[in-house]
Structure formats: structure tokens, C-alpha cells
Amino acid sequence: MSLKLYRPVPGGLEPGPVEQKDWRGRLRSRRWRAAPLENPEGQPVGPLGGVLFFGALALLTLIVLLIGYGTGFWG
Q1: CB neighbours (10 Å) of residue 6?
Q2: Residue 10 and residue 40: Cα distance in Å, rounded?
């Protein structure tokens, strides 16, 4: 037994209360208060539009790579 886990009381030893330590709290500074990010010129994009955009960009990149290696440009 350790006195860290059990504290002496008149009737014997009693388990100490368990402290819930959140490791995320140590990562944040007490003084840090982030300002709200606002962009009045930005247009919100739906999830489907974002997926389609980045999917098309990935497909275009793949096509450029295939053409480049197929013609021997990078090989």
C-alpha cells in the first residue's frame, strides 16, 4: 500500500479520491483566447462541392502523371 493512494483515517486506511486529470488542459495557455475568424468575402461551400472539387483535382493530377510517365517526360 502507498500513502499516495490510501490516506490514514481514525478507522484505518481509506482510498483517496481519484483526480481526473485532463491532458488537454496542459496544452492550452490560460491567456490564449483566439479571436473569431471571420471572412466576409468567403462563400461557404457544401460538403458535396468540396468532395467533387478535390476529387476532380486528384483525378487531374493522376492523368497528368500518367501522361508524363507514359510519354517518357519524367522517365
Answers
A1: 13
A2: 66
